[in-house]
């Protein structure tokens, strides 16, 4: 008899998902980036999986888990937050977010659509002549990618750089492009089992940190009549600055 996995792998659907409204896209893309920052799930007893849950994600920082929970709530995907404490001499916490079984399909479709549509918008545009709203969208996607990496990826800080370590090649490419959108040059360096994306200390570092700070509230960015299905704006965002995480 096989057991269901503890945490869900990165969502992927074989069909092309329907386009998301621009506000919904920003949240779904950021949640997908957070998921791609997470390391492989920790080993656990199969019996630890609740019967009413089949999907979830695991973080080792509370701020990353809280941001993911906030995003999923704004996307109308219910989630349960659990904390597990481990270690002997050095204690640590694991924050697990569980998605109920009946919402697993919506979770998978939403994050999959958010990743592919957001990646396409960020890597491909904005094209010359794009509207101001579309340019703001691309900037917002760049900020979301870096916010996710600074919250949930391996923070790599030295006196001369601010960097993040990732195991996901596509997310590394998104961060490089996102930095360019934010007018910051970034470097990509392969490491042992991961990729290091870094920006120089000084003005470049400060610009990335300012851009990645959580917004106090979310305002409309879509042009009237151009983005059907836009999720209404929500004021549930908390102004929390992104924090680091131990390097991978």
Describe what you observe in this structure.
- With 248 residues, the protein is α+β, with helices and mostly antiparallel strands.
- It has a single domain (22-212), classed as Endonuclease I-creI (Roll), CATH 3.10.28.10.
- 38% of the residues lie in helices and 17% in strands.
- The chain has six helices and seven strands; from the N terminus they run H-E-H-E-E-H-H-E-E-H-E-E-H.
- Strands 4-5-7-6 form a four-stranded antiparallel sheet, with helices on one face. Strands 1-3-2 form a three-stranded antiparallel sheet, with helices on one face.
- Strand 2 (80-86) and strand 3 (92-100) form a beta hairpin.
- Helix 1 runs antiparallel to helix 2.
- It starts with 21 loop residues before the first helix and ends in a 36-residue tail after the last helix.
- 40% of the residues are buried.
- Residues 1-9, 43-54 and 216-248 have low confidence and may be disordered.
- Residues 219-248 are annotated as: Disordered.
């Amino acid at each position: 008899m096989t057991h269901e996995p503890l945490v869900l792998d990165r969502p992927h659907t074989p069909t092309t998902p329907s386009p998301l409204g621009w506000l919904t896209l920003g949240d779904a893309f950021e949640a997908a980036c957070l998921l791609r920052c997470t390391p492989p799930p920790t080993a656990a007893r199969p019996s630890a999986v609740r019967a009413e849950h089949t999907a979830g994600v695991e973080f080792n920082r509370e701020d990353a888990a809280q941001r993911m929970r906030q995003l999923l709530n704004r996307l109308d995907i219910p989630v349960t937050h659990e904390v597990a404490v481990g270690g002997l001499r050095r204690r640590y916490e694991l924050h697990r977010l569980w998605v109920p079984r009946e919402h697993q399909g919506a979770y998978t479709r939403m994050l999959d659509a958010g990743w592919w549509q957001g990646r396409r918008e960020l890597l491909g545009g904005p094209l010359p002549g794009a509207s101001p709203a579309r340019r703001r969208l691309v900037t917002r996607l760049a900020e979301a990618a870096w916010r996710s990496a600074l919250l949930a990826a391996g923070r790599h800080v030295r006196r001369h750089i601010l960097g993040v370590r990732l195991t996901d090649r596509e997310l590394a490419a998104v961060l490089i492009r996102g930095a360019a959108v934010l007018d910051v040059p970034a470097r990509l360096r392969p490491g042992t089992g991961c990729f290091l994306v870094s920006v120089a200390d000084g003005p470049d570092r400060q610009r990335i940190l300012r851009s990645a700070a959580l917004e106090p509230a979310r305002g409309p960015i879509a042009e009237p009549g151009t983005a059907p299905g836009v999720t209404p704006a929500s004021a549930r965002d908390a102004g929390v600055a992104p924090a680091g995480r131990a390097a991978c």
